[in-house]
Amino acid sequence: MFPIRDTQPSNHRPVISILIIIVNVLVFLFEFSLDDYTRNHFISVYGLIPARFHFSALFTHMFLHGGWMHIIGNMWFLWIFGDNVEDVMGHGKYLAFYLACGVLAALTQMLFNSDSRLPMVGASGAIAGVMGAYLIKFPHARIVSVVPIFLFFTTFEVPAVLMLLYWFAIQLFSGFGSIGYSHVSQGGTAFFAHIGGFVAGMVLVMIVGTRPRYSRRADLNW
C-alpha cells in the first residue's frame, strides 16, 4: 500500500514545503556529484553521529540522504502531508515546527543508540512529525493509495487515521524489535527517529496551535 495523494484541499500554496523539498534535492544532487571518498567525508561531517555528537548536526542531518529511493520516498511523503499542515499552521510556524520535529526525532534515536558511530541522515524524522500533526488535524481525510492485488494494481481511498496509525505501528514494532541488534543489521533505518518525530508532531501541533481562523476548522472529509 503506497500513498499517492490525499483528498484534503489546501487554501494556500505550501511555500515552505516546496522550499524544503528544493533544498533537500539540491543538497542531494551536490552529494551525488562528489566522489565516494569526499561524499563519505561530507556525510560524516554533516550527518548526526551519536558517539561524536555536534549540535549543528541536529539540523544538518535532516537535509542529507543516502540514495535516490531515500530522498524520493521522503520528499513524496512530505508533498502529500506537508501542504495541509502548513496550511493550518502558517508558513513561519510550520518551518519552526518542522525543524523542531527533526531535532526531537534525532534526539530520540540518540537515546536508544547513543554509542553508534554511523551517521544518521535523512528528513524522515521531521516528516514523521508532519504525519503526526496530520493525524491530529485531519484524521478523517482520505489517502488515495496504490494497492497490489496479485499481478494487478488498483487504488483505494484509505482513512488517514488508519494509514498513519498502521505506519506508526510498523515503526514501533520494528524499533523495539531492533533493540539488541546493530544499526547496520536493521538496514540503517532509524526507527526510533520515526517514532520520536511522529509523537513530537502530535504533541507540538496541539501546543503551537493553528492559524486563528483554522483553530476550530472542521475536517472537510468528516
**Helical element count?**
8
- Per CATH, the architecture is Up-down Bundle
Instruction: Kindly provide the name of the CATH class.
Output: Mainly Alpha
User: Residue-averaged pLDDT, rounded?
Assistant: 88
Low-confidence stretches: 182-187, 216-222
Q: Into which percent range does the helicity of residues fall?
A: 55-70%
Cα-based radius of gyration, to the nearest Å:
17 Å
Provide a brief overview of the structure.
With 222 residues, this protein is mainly α.
Structure characterization notes:
With 222 residues, this protein is mainly alpha-helical. It has one domain: Up-down Bundle (Rhomboid-like fold). It has helices at 15-33, 36-46, 57-60, 68-89, 91-112, 124-137, 160-177, 191-208, and strands at residues 2-6, 142-149, 152-159. Strands 1-2-3 form a three-stranded antiparallel beta sheet. Strand 2 and strand 3 form a beta hairpin. Residues 182-187 and 216-222 have low confidence and may be disordered.
